[in-house]
Amino acid sequence: MYLISIIYFTLLYLNVVYRILADLVVLVHFLWILFLISGAFLGRKYRLIKYFHIGGLGFAFLIQIFGWYCPLTHLEIWLRSKHSPSLTYTGSFIIHYVEKIVYIELQSWIIFILTLIITGISFLIYRTSKSKI
């Protein structure tokens, strides 16, 4: 009986850990998107951030052009499936959470257009900064 209790509480503990880790991945994912949107303002001042930001925007384009999902999306879905398979979702992280928060149905082409706009604005910011690309 004691062994069954240990196994039960270990599985219960792991279940909670998977949920916490999945929630942390969501937080990191939102912070990453925020960085992609506003990173040019920091990138104007710090060259390393600028290159990291440009690389991130390039990676975002590759993901969208080839119809892939971000590795953070895959990680979150995997962690959620370990916690509770009913909490998983299919599709894009952005589409899933924007629909959940704002109740707006987004199409993937809208996200692509928004990425183009953010990239264009970022390059304009970099172009007008003192340190050129």
Report on the architecture of this protein.
By secondary structure, the protein is mostly helical. The protein has one domain. The protein is 79% helix and 0% strand. The chain has helices spanning 2-43, 47-65, 71-83, 93-102, 108-128. The longest helix has 42 residues, at 2-43. It is elongated and about 70 Å long. It starts with a helix and ends in a 5-residue tail after the last helix.
Low-pLDDT residue spans: none
> What's the order of the H and E elements?
HHHHH
Tally of alpha and pi helices:
5
Fraction of residues in β-strands: under 5%
Q: How confident is the prediction overall: mean pLDDT?
A: 83
- Based on CA inertia axes, which overall geometry fits? elongated
Distance from N terminus to C terminus (CA atoms, Å) equals 66 Å
Q: Given the helix and strand composition, which structural class is it? A: mainly alpha
- Number of domain modules: 1
In brief:
With 133 residues, this protein is mainly alpha-helical.
Features:
mainly alpha; 133 residues; 5 helices; elongated
Strand and helix layout:
Blueprint: H1 2-43, H2 47-65, H3 71-83, H4 93-102, H5 108-128
Helix pairs in contact: 1-2, 1-3, 1-5, 2-5
